[in-house]
Amino acid sequence: MLSFIHRACFPPLLAVALFYAPFAHAAVDDRVSTGEEIAIAFFKTGDSTPDFETLAKASKEYKRMPPVRAGDYLEKEKQRLTQLWRDFNPEEDVIGISGDVHVELKKVIDKKDGKEKFWMYIMLPETELTHFGYKYQDYRFAIIPQKIDDLMIQPLQKEQFENMTKEFGMGGPARLFLTLKPVKAHTDQPYKIDGIERWALICDIATMSIGSKKGTDTFWNYGADWYVSPVTEDLQDLYKAPTEGTSVPVQIP
Questions:
Q1: Where are the domains of the chain?
Q2: What is residue 80's three-state secondary structure?
Q3: Which of its termini does the chain have fewer beta carbons within 10 Å around, N or C?
Q4: Which band of pLDDT confidence, cut at 50, 70 and 90, is reported for residue 236?
C-alpha cells in the first residue's frame, strides 16, 4: 500500500513552455547523474550533513584498500565527499536521470478545420507512485518528478511525427531523459514505495526529451520556461519560431 504523498498534494509546477526542434535527430547530450550525485543532492537539498566517514568506509574502494593505505584513502575520500556536498547548490544545480518508456504516435483529422493533427503518448512503467529509483551504498532513493503525468500527451509537428515514425513506427520502446531541479528532500524517514523503503527527493522538471531505445539519438524536447541551460538556449535560438515558446491550450483527441 502506498505510504507516501499523493500527487495531488505536490506544490504546483511552475509555468512551462514547449520548444520543438524540427530536425531528424540529434545526438543525446543529457547528463545522467550517478547514485553518488543523487545522494549528495538529496542530503544538501534536505539541509542534512551526512556522516562522510561512514560513507567513505562503505565504498568498495575502501574495503579493497590495503591496510597500510586505508587511512590515507579514508581522509581523502572524506574530503572529496565533503567538497561535493558543499559545492552542490539546490537553488541552481540540477540532476539528470533517464528511464525506459513506451511511446505511441497518432495522426488524426481535426473535425473543425479538416487539418491533420499529430500526437505523442508517453507511457511510463506502472507503479503505485511515479518515481525513478536510485541506489547509493545502503541508501535507496525515489526521485519523484512533480506533475510528470501532465506531460505524457504531447502535440507534434508533422516533420517531428514523420521522423519519429521512422524510429518507432506508430509505437515502441524509447528512452526518457529528464533534467530535474530538487525542491524537497524527505530526510525525516524513508517511505515504502512499491514495497521498498526509499528516501524521497521531490523535483521540478526542467527539461525532458525522448530518445531512441539505445539513447544515442533524441527526437523530441521539452523545456520549462524558468530553466535555460546552454543546450536549451542553443536549441531555442536555432529552432524556435517567433510564435513558439508560449503555453497554449490544446485539445487532446
A1: 15-46+90-239, 49-89
A2: helix
A3: N
A4: low
